[in-house]
Amino acid sequence: MSLEIDLPNASIRVKVSDLEKVGAGGEGSVYLLRHQSGTFAIKRYHQPSQERIQKLEAAIAARPVNAVFGEGDDAIVQMAWPLGLVREHGESLGFVMPYVDSKKAMELDYFISPVLAKDARHLEKPNLAVRLQIAQNLCSVVNSLHEVGHYFIDFKPQNIKVYPRSLHVCLIDCDSFSVTHNGVRYPASAYSPQFINPIALVNDQPPSALGEEQDNWAIAVALFMLLNFDLHPYDGRASPSVTVTAVDDFVKMGLYAYGPRPHPLVTPKPASVHNLWPSELRALFDRAFTDPQRAPTMSEWVQYLQSILQNKLIARCDSKPNAVDHLRFLGNGCMQCAFESRQKPRAIKQRPAKPRSVEPPAAPKPSPVTNSSKPSFPYNVPIPAQRKMSGEAKAFWGLLIFFLIVFFINSQQETPDPRQIVNVAPSTPPSPPTPQADSAPRTSYFYSYPIRKPKSSGVSLVTEEIRWCAYQDYRISYLKLTVSDNLLKDIREEFNSLCVNKKLMSDVRETIETVELANPGLQQALKGVANLD
Ligand SMILES: [Zn+2]
Predict the structure, then answer these.
(1) Lowest mean pLDDT, pick from 14-18, 39-43, 71-75, 110-114
(2) Which residues surround ligand 1, an ion (CB under 5 A)?
(3) Pick from 258, 32, 66: which is nearest to 148 by CA?
(4) Which fold has domain 106-341?
């Protein structure tokens, strides 16, 4: 049994038995295809309906230009977008797409949830700058999708992958997107609880009826969670008169606790750090969650996030200036300090189950693109009477609290990482990730190349001291991207007094700069070290 596969520049035949099966789900199975032009994934539907194939043909024809950049296995895949059809005996039964290696790209959840980040062995602690850079990259990619008339619809963090080194993002499950081609709309067929916008919930709209407003709202939710240590914007402390408990019911009722005015039925969770955000950022979230039809567009987010990153509106923490995961918005207190202090004596909350896509029974049909009138959005759900906790619920919460206490005690017994690690996002397009660098011991670079801080009285520098200066120079130019000049003053003054106007062998410095500092592993190590001394 062989498959005929339409790759971008060639049509090939491959035996099914030669393919490695890498996944299977309700819709179909996924296989790995290694080819001289790169590595690909094949999705073979269990039931390849005519609607699915028509939608795939449209998607293949209307592929966004920036879906992939770079070539071969070093390419950065920003969208696992269908590249070509896959046939058997002339019948289309699926498609081929770029392969996203799970060793190179991790789910966005790992950058949102402190619990998951802790579990991920090779992931450096994601700090504020990293989160902002991911947010900007995500909004930028989705913006490019919107510009050509496609929509994500089934947006949830599990459908986003992040390359931990470059912080580029990759959108997956692209065959479920709402796609437009030649004036015809091929709608989405699924969405996921906790990420369905309130207009759709209140009006009971299926995913096939949704467009850009769904993406704008769902991504605002993800950004809120990314900047608020996994707290959903509709996760608040409800008054006893509220009997609903599901997040989607809170969304339907407009129970958003983090807005500019106190809500009569819900108050913020104590763990929230929203009060440490700049007013412009809060205003963007407040608009999304109090007036969802006017949720900020992707280009608005990109503009705002770029302004923060490019204008260096991030500073180190006053209490822990050397703890590089303690970054804060300039003019505001440290979110990490607040988060850590508010976790005591409580344990970090466990994540609820991942939201699963909901797909209505009937497959959506392609439809001509029209400007249909927007459905109404009243928060008109009646407020139910006071809730009572059942015996079962009490037992459940008792058990949960017990496990959280055990979890907290265990987490306190772990030895903290002795090195403070900063992982600030680069402002220029970064180099592709290196597969083995994740597991490389960070400190080995310093041990394999002798390094010594120059003496202030020294006039001429030896190789080890030249290396210290070159490395420090690299660190300073990197830190300048995110830390205000004021905070860098001391480190620069020290560098100037120890390294500038000293006699040194220029060829040694040149070798260090062009050979050693070209190594991405060393670059990463230098970005991660709190102090070069
Ligand atoms: Zn702090």
Answers:
(1) 71-75
(2) 317, 320, 326, 334, 336-337
(3) 66
(4) Transferase(Phosphotransferase); domain 1 (1.10.510)
